[in-house]
Write a structure and sequence with these properties.
single chain, 261 residues, mainly alpha, globular
Length: 261
Amino acid sequence: MSEPLSAWAYTVVFGAGVLSSAMNAVAGGGSLISFPILVGLGVPPVVANATNAVAQVPGQAASAFGFWNLLPATRGLFLPLLIPTVAGSFLGGWLLTRTDPTWFDHLVPLLILVASLLLLFQPQIKQWSQKRRPGSGLRRGTSALLQGLISLYGGYFGAGMGIMMLALLGLMMEANLHELNAVKNWLGLLINLVAGVLFVSSGLVGFSVGLVLTAGCILGGFVAARFSQRLNPDRLRRAVVVLGFALTVGYFVQNVLRWSA
């Protein structure tokens, strides 16, 4: 599926990729930048969502491999969650390929609102997950079920899924933040890979705009790796939260006007 965009629009898409990937590396929630920009440029929401998920994979891969040395220490977290992650992301991606585009349009405000709230309360979620009593971790079956649901959401939409996983992993067992991030990044990469294969095979990915977005994501991940310590992640996170709430209102008003027309 191709999108005949102008040279100016492709420049905007490239910039969206840079910003979203850098945001993901620093604070999370980068899809709240790239997804709305794609939709604003005329890409259908379902295609924009699928294209964005595939384009974010290189940046996620870079982040995941950056934590490669911590995987042996986190095997007890990672391995039990592999099957529910694959199953949940496959189901979520499959649901998106079967969703009526009009119905997805109506869901967009709610999905963006959920992602914005997760980003808003990210510090509280992180603090809460790390304050549990030692030895009070979730049971394996409960953890697998919750990870399956998070992966379903991630395969269907994705924005904010990393925050959900970080909270879940913190409730599962004792581990430092770097170890939790290692597992989160690898599981997030797996979710987008599984869903991405479905999106590509279903013809939902806009390849021309997707390649430009991917190039921006790669550059954004590189820039963030070099200069992330100079940025204030809390200010960046709050700015994206404000953007998310504004987009929620904007999409909701747009849907109301469409219904009343």
